[in-house]
Amino acid sequence: MRQFLRLLKILFTIWRFGLLRIVRDSLKPGLIKVILTALAWITPGSYTRGQSLRLALEALGPIFVKFGQVLSTRRDLLPTDIADELAKLQDQVPPFSEEKSLALVEASLGKKISEVFISFDRTPTASASVAQVHFAVLKGTQKYPEWEGRQVAVKVLRPGILSVIESDLALLKVLAGLVEKLWRDGKRLKPRENVEEFDTYLHDELDLMREASNASQLRRNFEGSKKLMIPEMYWDLCGLNVMVMERMYGIPISKLDQLKAAGIDLKKLAADGVEIFFTQVFQDGFFHADMHPGNIFVSVAPETFGRYIALDFGIVGALSDSDKNYLAQNFLAFFNRNYRRVAELHIESGWVPKETRVEELEGAVRAVCEPYFDRPLKEISLGIVLMRLFQASRRFNVEIQPQLTLLQKTLLNIEGLGRQLDPDMDLWKTAKPVLERWVDQQIGIRGFIDRLKDEAPQWAKLVPTIPRLLATWLENHHEKSENNIQELMLKLLSEQKQTRKLIWGSILFLGGLISGTLFTLTWLG
């Protein structure tokens, strides 16, 4: 009954904010479209389609707001006016009570607040749909006396959020199924797959131990970096519902006036942001995938002046080696205006049917991308480029790849940061050296040496066992069929000359293999 009432509220909200017009215009011809056309005439209010969607999502609650935020980054799927309006969605909800927050912290830690913290700010500094954050000061312990006086941030999961999420996600999946069946481009846009990914992101955010481990991995990847800072996790104080981490101080990336007043070089900051993103993606294959301005600060402390500070690690992305290789080749082909290679990569990856003519796809890619090169970033919208590529690819039956949703979302966030900090920055020139360095590491002499180092321990274990493995194989073979062995020996004896060549060739090959491996191990240290 509760689900049914929630569905009625969704339908009422769709009607109330004029979304019926958008739904009607997107449907395939049929009876439902005729009915919606009639209902649209009596819709109250007068909004643009972007405003209608934003207002409806805000009325439906925090989970729908968060889904709208994710959707706003899919500019390859949405018209610009809708994406711009969805980008205005704010994930700000009233905090839950101090008593509940304190009780959750004490239950997770198994101790009273006063036993763990010198002070604990009961008023949250930030409150969102999934969690809220309090500032505190740690007490030292017998195990960790150095903790005394350390300032920390305590993230507390919103109570009862799981049941709310499960309920709303169930409805989103129903709506995605309807979109797939009724919308003209429904199947190709894969709405159900996108909702499933959103489901995964949300459930990952509900596990604060996972978020802490994500932060720890990013911190390790950028250990010693002069460009990015990640807060330290206090593992003994982290649990599924509560996470305690180092408190970070800085200026929000969106406060340009404050950054300028502090003496931050915005052009360098913009270039560093692009380099950080491409390093995460192509060097580590593990990247912060929620890099909106609310999660990014800039340090003004003398010892870390001008470095980025990343927060909120509930959503991260990971890429396989094949993904990284494919994407790096695609980016480099774009930067070098090698549109034929872009077309070939789409076909090789299976994004388009194998029978697609390379020349036709190359021409379509060129028509979309060529007008945007050699322009400053302020004149380029990567979202528009992606959208036009998507539109141009319709006749080639290109399918949206859900596994790259996070990467596209993060790249668009980086574009927005770059445009905000340095409108004249050339995104292509800034990113190209990072990609070329990565390609050299993968397929150049440096990559060969690195892979040789990785494989050396395996060869060191394998080579000495080859004689034993060969003897074992011969012994097993003899036990299974002595007659076959005798026949084989007679055949070998009758062909002594060929046998001697085979034996000596095998000895020389094995000797060369062992010598080469030992030389390589010695040379590599």
What does this protein look like?
The protein has 525 residues and is α+β, with helices and mostly antiparallel strands. The protein folds into 3 domains: 2-92 and 162-203, no CATH class; 249-443, no CATH class; 449-523, no CATH class. It contains 24 helices and 11 strands. It has helices at residues 2-16, 19-26, 31-40, 49-60, 62-72, 80-86, 98-109, 113-116, 161-182, 186-189, 191-205, 208-221, 256-261, 266-284, 321-335, 339-349, 358-369, 382-392, 405-421, 427-443, 445-462, 466-480, 482-494, 496-523; strands at 117-120, 126-127, 131-138, 151-157, 228-229, 242-246, 251-252, 286-288, 296-298, 308-310, 316-318. Strands 1, 2, 3, 4 and 6 form a 5-stranded antiparallel beta sheet that branches. Strands 5-10-9-7 form a 4-stranded mixed beta sheet. A two-stranded antiparallel ribbon has the order 8-11. The radius of gyration is 29 Å and the shape is globular. The relative contact order is 0.07. The model has no long low-confidence stretch (mean pLDDT 77).
Topology (SSEs and partners):
Layout: H1 2-16, H2 19-26, H3 31-40, H4 49-60, H5 62-72, H6 80-86, H7 98-109, H8 113-116, E1 117-120, E2 126-127, E3 131-138, E4 151-157, H9 161-182, H10 186-189, H11 191-205, H12 208-221, E5 228-229, E6 242-246, E7 251-252, H13 256-261, H14 266-284, E8 286-288, E9 296-298, E10 308-310, E11 316-318, H15 321-335, H16 339-349, H17 358-369, H18 382-392, H19 405-421, H20 427-443, H21 445-462, H22 466-480, H23 482-494, H24 496-523
Parallel strand pairs: 5-10
Antiparallel strand pairs: 1-3, 2-3, 3-4, 4-6, 7-9, 8-11, 9-10
Helix pairs in contact: 1-4, 2-3, 4-5, 4-6, 5-6, 9-11, 14-19, 14-20, 15-16, 15-20, 16-17, 17-18, 20-21, 21-24, 22-23
